[in-house]
Amino acid sequence: MQTVPWPVSAWKQLKQGKISCEAALSLVRNDEGILNLDLLDEEVCSRFFQYCQGQKLPPVVPLLLWQSCFYLGSPVDVPAEVLETIGDRTLTTVKVLPISAKSYRTWYHTRTADLSRITSSRLLDPITGQQSTDDIGETTELFLSKAEGQIERIKAIISSALQHQASDIHLEPTLEGLRVRYRIDGVLRNITLLPMEISRRVIVALKVMANMDIADSRRPQDGRIGEKYQVDNEADQSMDMRVSTLPCVCGEKAVVRLLPRENPFTTIDKLGFSPKALKIYKTWLEQPQGIIVFTGPTGSGKTSTLYTSLQAIATEHVNVVTVEDPVEYVLPCITQTQVNEAAGMSFAAGLRSILRQDPDIIMVGEVRDHETAETAIRAALTGHLVFTTLHTNDAAGAIPRIKDIGPDPGLISDALLGVVAQRLVRRICPHCAEPTQPNPELLAILQLDAAQIKKGNWRRGRGCPSCFQSGYSGREAVVEMLEVDDRIRELIYDGTMTQLRRHLSKSDSISFRTSAIEKVMAGVTTVEEVLRVLPRSALKLTSAGEPEPLHLVQRLG
Ligand SMILES: [Zn+2]
Known about the structure:
Blueprint: H1 10-15, H2 21-28, H3 42-51, E1 61-65, E2 69-74, H4 80-90, E3 93-98, H5 101-112, E4 118-119, H6 136-146, H7 150-163, E5 166-173, E6 177-184, E7 187-195, H8 196-209, E8 221-230, E9 237-248, E10 251-260, H9 275-285, E11 290-295, H10 302-313, E12 320-324, E13 335-338, H11 347-355, E14 361-364, H12 370-381, E15 385-390, H13 398-405, H14 409-415, E16 416-428, E17 433-435, H15 440-446, H16 450-455, E18 459-461, E19 472-483, H17 486-494, H18 497-506, H19 512-521, H20 527-533, H21 536-539
Parallel strand pairs: 2-3, 4-8, 11-15, 11-16, 12-13, 12-14, 14-15
Antiparallel strand pairs: 1-2, 5-6, 5-10, 6-7, 8-9, 9-10, 16-19, 17-18
Helix pairs in contact: 6-7, 7-8, 11-12, 12-14, 14-17
Bound molecules: zinc ion (ZN).
């Protein structure tokens, strides 16, 4: 890369008498008004801005200075009186040629971007002053084109990922080069392809930044990068990035998880719970003792819900202690401990130590073994509010799982306040939302009746620059709740899974199906999105009288 000679600017060629003024102009600007930034001259530029220092200028790019005339490019019509003022300052005549708005933006951003630091602020369009609406791939490429060296290149990729609220960056070697993808709102998106020649060097630089062994590329490795980054014009924020590498056929693939340390959690009211679900959930949080279980796969947002809830109840009057593996975010007013098996700090050992520390509220990252389950449930029966997570598909599925690993069912039924199962659905982008008629085939899956279909406020995102053409922006929880009442307590103690599910379908409980329907009918998300995140079985309307398939007739636990 460094061996390519810098092209001689059009202005220098003109000065050397190699070309005419007209030829020089057509080198820097083609007939469509697109600039060739490589052929502009830095000296022309700095002289122009020196003369015009302190003057408010319209968007202009100095193209050439020839025979006492400044040739400027501008994407807007520059009024004659402004041209006159510029002429007075520069003591030259001034001619303006139209250039494309995009060329102007690229020129402006490449001049002003500071690649030595990571920034999460979105680029501003210098012409309108609004947030830049350019394509993500284009902005990333713009930064990359200016990067000198691999470290700047990586910082450019991270900046662009932060600006687009990505949670992960994937760098994958392919036969064509290094593919860069961002995960935004849970979905991976192609951003750019770095050329083959630098593909390996970028991965090596990333490994250096993450303190990994660069000599070893045959073993998966993991590491961390701690960096400061800039948020708008405020003080720097620190950020953790977890980097992992995996040897693959074309080289080494790297994934960077971005974990901004600024508090990313909202309030309970903004998680996406329906008013009814929220009301029930808040009564659980007000209890002095009992256990609340969160279930869902990785990436279902259960950790966010948990942290948001802990923050809501962590006041000066209570002692909140957690044992986690690993601690993902450091929360204020909460004592967080981390599992360290090598040092003998398991979930069970951590929980036992916490109980000697006079806790009021305890969060156990995950219940995986009998000892942890038993200790957690006993704690929940002796004056502590306990939060934990399990890996089950739905809320009802948590019951046999706890019974499998936990203590006596009588203790479980007494301790359990409720179960929240959740997934995340993308919200329709507010900037490009429009009314739509939903696809009848998809509606059939939800088994809605004609009246409901008529009543729905069906919307979809058309796709706009602000949501990067995806039609979605941001995510929220869609939840299923199992509220433990007397009947459910009986069923936990002495019932079958079939009886429990039948009871839930008869009662007016909050299921994935009802929550999802509420969201699509309110125009928060689309049927397609609901189908993407929820299994079809969760959306089926089970009639209460219908016999369950035989394999589901099992004892609870
Ligand atoms: Zn949009």
